[in-house]
């Protein structure tokens, strides 16, 4: 137990600053949609999710940036603007009718900067991998912390904020109490965050653990400019009860256009149901029914909504918001108590003995 306690302390100290950043930025990202509504007036209204209206909007967006639009996350009843993603990595917001309101680099607006900080630590692909590893390590810290706490469970108390930041005992007590109270949400947030980053490995593990029907590969397609009114109508006909959520242009010649939809019962805010469209004539080439996938892949598809607070309404949003703050506080209290302990362990230099006079 002593070795596990030491490993928990050192690993927590090494990861603390990253976990503080991830916890605080994750909490603030829960408020991203309200922030967009505050700063983009057109976002405050709702949008009717009909294929005709949405198709016309995507057509208008493409006409304003020919050949530059990568995909569009469609507006809906909860956010009245379309999110536009361009091939040069710029992003933008478009009004319900497709009129482009603003275009910006990923870090030019507060919500984009915050997302890049949370997802990549503002360090590109390298930061992406560091965040994923920190998420998995954070989940392991929760487990080891629980194991270390169990023999001393009687020491648990309700205080989560230390009486003073100068006494190690107060910091350790608050770290312990807060960790016990928030163990489940912090564990879920850390584990799902890491699993999302390492999605290929996670999907393979989940499919092996709970096998079942897998999603097919995207089919070959013709070439041409997609008529989004016909494409979205065809997708809606394939899944009449689903909501249209994303429209993506072909990634390369011979690839299909992709339409994401959300069926009733799906947790993911943009759905994992897919319709592939031939850009040459808007025929449906294939589909992925997210509700018919194997249990492992259906479970994996729940990770993002659990991580981002996109299921369970405002109550679960509050859990994710507070869970992020708890993660930051756990990292801060743990690191500060660790530093105090290391400082006190330093030997005090002995005073030199006075030399005898000659």
TrEMBL record:
Spans traversing the lipid bilayer: 7-31, 130-156, 177-198, 314-339
Keyword Transmembrane helix carried by entry: yes
Lineage of the organism: Bacteria, Pseudomonadati, Pseudomonadota, Alphaproteobacteria, Caulobacterales
Designated name of the protein: PepSY domain-containing protein
Entry keyword annotation includes Transmembrane helix: yes
Source species: Phenylobacterium zucineum (strain HLK1)
Family matches, as InterPro entries: PepSY-ass_TM
Keyword line: Membrane, Transmembrane, Transmembrane helix
One Pfam family, short name: PepSY_TM
């Amino acid at each position: 137990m002593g070795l596990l306690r030491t490993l928990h302390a050192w690993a927590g100290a090494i990861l603390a600053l990253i976990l503080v950043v991830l916890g605080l930025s994750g909490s603030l990202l829960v408020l991203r949609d309200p922030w967009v509504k505050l700063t983009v007036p057109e976002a405050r209204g709702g949008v009717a999710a009909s294929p005709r209206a949405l198709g016309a909007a995507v057509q208008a967006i493409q006409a304003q940036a020919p050949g530059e639009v990568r995909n569009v996350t469609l507006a809906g009843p909860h956010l009245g603007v379309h999110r536009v993603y361009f091939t040069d990595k710029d992003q933008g917001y478009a009004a319900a009718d497709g009129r482009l309101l603003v275009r910006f680099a990923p870090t030019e607006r507060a919500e984009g900067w915050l997302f890049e900080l949370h997802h990549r630590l503002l360090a590109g692909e390298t930061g992406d991998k560091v965040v994923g590893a920190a998420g998995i390590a954070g989940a392991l810290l929760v487990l080891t912390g629980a194991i270390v706490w169990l023999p001393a469970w009687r020491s648990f108390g309700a205080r989560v904020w230390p009486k003073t930041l100068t006494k190690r005992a107060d910091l350790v007590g608050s770290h312990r109490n807060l960790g016990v109270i928030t163990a489940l949400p912090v564990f879920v947030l850390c584990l799902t965050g890491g699993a999302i980053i390492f999605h290929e490995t996670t999907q393979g593990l989940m499919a092996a653990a709970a096998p079942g029907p897998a999603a097919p590969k995207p089919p070959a397609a013709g070439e041409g400019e997609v008529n989004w009114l016909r494409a979205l109508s065809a997708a809606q006909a394939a899944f009449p009860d689903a909501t249209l959520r994303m429209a993506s242009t072909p990634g390369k010649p011979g690839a299909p256009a992709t339409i994401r939809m959300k069926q009733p019962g799906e947790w993911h805010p943009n759905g994992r149901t897919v319709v592939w469209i031939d850009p040459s004539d808007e025929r449906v080439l294939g589909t992925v029914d997210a509700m018919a996938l194997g249990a492992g892949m259906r479970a994996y598809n729940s990770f993002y909504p659990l991580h981002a607070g996109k299921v369970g309404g405002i109550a679960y949003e509050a859990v994710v918001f507070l869970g992020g703050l708890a993660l930051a506080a756990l990292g801060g209290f743990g690191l500060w108590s660790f530093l105090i302990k290391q400082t006190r362990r330093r030997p005090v230099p002995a005073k030199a003995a006075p030399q005898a006079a000659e």
